[in-house]
Amino acid sequence: MDHGAAPAQPDTCAIEASDIRFSWPNSAFSMTVSEFRVQRGEKLLLLGESGGGKSTLLSLICGVVSPDQGSIRVAGQELTNLSTFRRDRLRANKIGVIFQMFNLLPYASAVENILVPLCFSPERRTRCTTPRDEALELAAALGLPRNLVTDEPASNLSAGQQQRVAVARAMIGRPEIIVADEPTSALDKKSQAEFIDLLFDQVAQAGSTLIMVSHDERLADRFDRTVQLSDLVVTSGVAVA
Ligand SMILES: Nc1ncnc2c1ncn2[C@@H]1O[C@H](COP(=O)(O)OP(=O)(O)OP(=O)(O)O)[C@@H](O)[C@H]1O
């Protein structure tokens, strides 16, 4: 497990953050990050305890929130200069997100869920010649039975199946960066290993960069690099569990 910083070459970075300061409004929690870089194609695990600020850091990287000061570059683009609309568009184009609770549309089928990001991202849409076929191929590659993907509402799928749909939705249109927020937290060790295999396969095929956050240190040897949140950020105003 390598705790070292990635080399400081801007052209090779998918994500670069420096001198970040951020506070949530109406909350005592604040964080600072002096330097954080993720190389293109790297698979990085961000480890940290509950309440330490992992999701907050992901929100900053995804441009969901803006830092009070500092610079965040994603796929070569400075986020802090952009309007909310342009940040949203950049996120849709460049980042596929896998949420902890999957966040699928419950009444839509799996294939409809997988296609959702293409509605918000012209860049990812142009990479799909036949979007529905590509969504079905992704679902098949992730081991989802065809009839389940086309005929059932997502709410009828098991947690493990919903998780695979969430991966396919993140991967459609091959975004440059995949961000996964604790996607294995509800899984036993065997299912966790299977999930990581499927995710890594897809990430390798798309040539994407992967940042996954977790509190599970057992995952560390699967990744190119592991960063402990406590080595990266200084927080105040919160007691970490
Ligand atoms: N929308 C918000 N508004 C105000 N405070 C928030 C908000 N989201 C998170 N916080 C606060 O920021 C701190 C860090 O939360 P965050 O969710 O980033 O931690 P985490 O490491 O992802 O935790 P977990 O592993 O439990 O998901 C917490 O004290 C939390 O209360």
What does this structure look like?
- GO terms for molecular function: ATP binding; ATP hydrolysis activity; transmembrane transporter activity.
- The protein has 241 residues and is of the alpha/beta class.
- It has one domain (10-236): P-loop containing nucleotide triphosphate hydrolases (Rossmann fold), CATH 3.40.50.
- Helices cover 36% and strands 24% of the residues.
- It has helices spanning 54-61, 84-94, 110-120, 122-126, 131-141, 146-151, 159-171, 189-206, 229-232, and strands at 13-23, 30-39, 43-47, 69-74, 77-78, 95-98, 177-181, 209-214, 225-228, 233-236.
- The strands form 2 sheets. It has a 5-stranded antiparallel beta sheet.
- The two termini are 24 Å apart.
- The model has no long low-confidence stretch (mean pLDDT 91).
- Residues 24, 27, 29, 48, 50-56, 215, 238 line the site of adenosine-5'-triphosphate.
CATH architecture label name? 3-Layer(aba) Sandwich
Q: What oligomeric state do the depicted chains represent?
A: single chain
Low-confidence stretches: none
CATH superfamily: P-loop containing nucleotide triphosphate hydrolases
Report Rg.
Answer: 18 Å
Provide a count of the helices. Answer: 9
Percent in helix: 25-40%
Secondary-structure element pattern, one letter each? EEEHEEHEHHHHHEHEEHE
